[in-house]
Amino acid sequence: MxxxxxxxxxxNAGGAQALVTLVRVEGSSYRRxxxxxLIGAAGECAGSISGGCLEAEVVRxxxxxxxxGAVVERYSTLFDDTTEIPFGLGCGGVVDLLLExxxxxxCHALLSAMxxxxxxxxxxxxxxxxxxxRPLRRAVIAADGTVMFRSDGLSTSDVDAFATRVxxxxxxxxGVYIETLTAPQRLFVLGAGEDxxxxxxxASMLGWNVTVADGRSQLARSERFPEAERVLAITxxxxxxxxxxxxxxxxxxSYEQDRAFLTELLAGTGGYVGLLGATHRSSLLIGxxxxxxxxxxxxxxxxxxxPVGMDLGGDGAEAIALAVIAExxxxxxxxxxxxRKLSAxxxxxxxxxxxxxxxLQTQCAMGAAER
Length: 371
Hints:
- The chain is α/β, with parallel strands linked by helices.
- The chain is 30% helix and 23% strand.
């Protein structure tokens, strides 16, 4: 997603000449289909289509190769390269790259859809690859099925055949490349303390849309979090309109504020809800939120990742931020296996150790020794 932001930035700056898209992979490849590289007239570029081994060669030749229109070029990254495939670098696979000039309606439609996706407007893009004298053609379909762009020569039936496909891949035998432009992951960091800063920085490096929110206006200031899309002083988590695709980390270090935010989040349909703090403190918060909502503790435990973050080891705000961002990334990719969620039995054992009075005047919720 961060590549898309850089590509859109270079495109809006003007002077872009060629767009390169990785459309097919055989064997091993550093990048997957859907990776893009935008090239400017002076050789400046944004994005990537490999681990850095192909870019120099592609940038050097791209403007010459697209002088007559879009083309598909095959590159080998196998160490034992043959003369039939033009490039060998030892990465272990073969890739097909679509190179197209920027100054066409088709490329403009793709880049416009890419820019719109950054603000949450998702779309599917079907590209009929140039083969045997047939020029590149493209259709851009909105999430609701509306055709936002269709090349001359494409019929309604041509577009309808691919309108519901969502996988970034070339359809075998048809020569049509399907790409889905998804919105960036939204991360809500509820807590504007110092330890929120590395979390916001790491999430922004991945291209996520980050919102920082806190009930304390003296902390919730945009100059403290320059990488965040929004910094808000709020009184209720309901103001954020969290959806099932979003991730939220509750980390205000105020027991009362965490309890209020957690209760509101569990009442909604949010996706990932992480709770920062010691096991005992988190257990009390979940137990109280369950009581306020009239739900079982077990049901609430299933909704909350606590202690938040993968068990990577380490100490300090940066290490915790890395653990949390890694867990959210795994969650959004469907790669999250076992988690560190509390069970109803865990909560019951912790409650027996004492109530919340020790936290009501305490501002630090890190509790590293109890994590």
